[in-house]
Amino acid sequence: MTERIVTVFDECFSSPTGLNTRLVGGHAEPYYRPASESGAHWHQVEFTRDYPASALHEVAHWCVAGAERRALPDYGYWYAPDGRSTAQQAEFEVVEVKPQALEWIFARACGLKFRVSADNLDAGLGPSDAFKRNIWLQVLRYCCEGVNPRAHRFARALAGAFAQPDPLLPEHFRLEELG
Predict the structure, then answer these.
(1) What is the pLDDT of the chain when averaged over all its residues?
(2) At what angle do helices 52-64 and 86-110 cross, to 10 degrees?
């Protein structure tokens, strides 16, 4: 499963004349490494071990990041590890709506179940109902208004590789699926 996700991503985006970006698993923590940081001739989206959900989530962040952000290590974003306060968790939920909505679309394109991630197990704060609803509403917006060209290309390529129906149809997404 994960190897196929990597292959699809690399087929879409690794060309040196295109976006020159590769998807690489096997890492202890996810990270985005622009070519300028790694000394490689390509940019690298790194995901945790061989987890399909981690691969799709990190690609979603890459799709959300604009050109300036993709020139910065880890997109230049702030990140507080597990154990965030309630206020930090609320901020996390605001910035995670778009990437998690894309991740849900990508998971659907692979035939995988999507799980909302609060990414804060130590604090005992799961995803709020509002966060789940906002992700669902964002998915519906993406389906009706469109996603950016990178996300569109990847979602369609995944659906083709995994023999899944069009992943950008709103009727494929129900709030109840998020638990």
Answers:
(1) 90
(2) 110
End-to-end Cα distance, the chain: 24
Report whether 61 contacts 100 (CB < 8 A). Answer: no
Q: How far is CA 15 from CA 40, 43, 44, 170, in A?
A: 14, 11, 13, 31
Tokens coding 159: 């659906």
Quote the CA–CA distance of 13 and 9 in Å, as a whole number. Answer: 6
Model confidence pLDDT, tens digit, residues 35-90: 988 678 999 999 999 999 999 999 999 999 999 999 999 998 766 566 656 677 66
Alpha-carbon gap, residue 169 to 176, rounded angstroms: 17
User: Are 133 and 175 in contact, with CB atoms under 8 Å apart?
Assistant: yes
